[in-house]
Amino acid sequence: MAIHALFPTLVYRAPLTSAANAHFDQRLHDECEAIAASDMAGRRWSAKHYVGGYTSYGSLDRLHLVSPLFDRLRRHIDRHVALFVRSLQYDLSRRRVAMSDCWLNRMPGGIGHSLHLHPASFISGTYYVVVPKGAGALKFEDPRLSRLMAAPPRRADAPRAMRSFVSMAARSSDLILFESWLRHEVPPARYAGERVSISFNYTWVTTPARAGAKKS
User: Fold this and answer.
1) What is the CATH number of domain 23-145+164-206?
2) Residue 179 pairs with which residues in a beta bridge?
3) What's the whole-model pTM score?
4) DSSP label of 59
5) Is the pLDDT of residue 214 over 60?
């Protein structure tokens, strides 16, 4: 008898900066605060779509193209995305993966972000700049959930890989990557202060063949 685990859903997590580079997060936090203070269009958008919090998603969603500090963050993230994509076994010959969108989020205690995915993207993720004690976790949904039909509920003590929902606690200076089709949310949680994060998407583009390359 054999039981095979097929079609895995992979989520990547790693610290992006060390304690020695804590000043980088402080600089990011300061810039996030400055952007949020001046982004009137973003605050208006957030009042309708991100009630109680702030996001630059509806106003400044390519921060890596306008801010040298966010572009430096992009370069850090690029290396981790390359490792993650390699583990997913995609064929990237003559293809290049690049950040397409990058925006910031400020979420006070009691505010949540409902289940969603990131259409027209390949890899998505979040970098946590400031995470107060008790701040909301990132919660992933089993992508097969809508197709389970007559299945009974999972056992409360089921292994994490077998659960219908899996939560990953937010931690400052941590990076989380996942495929963009994976639905996720941030349930409301009670805590003091604001949870500050930077979210982003990556897409892939075809690269031209090198001059002189042989055609098969």
Assistant:
1) 2.60.120.620
2) 123
3) 0.93
4) T
5) no
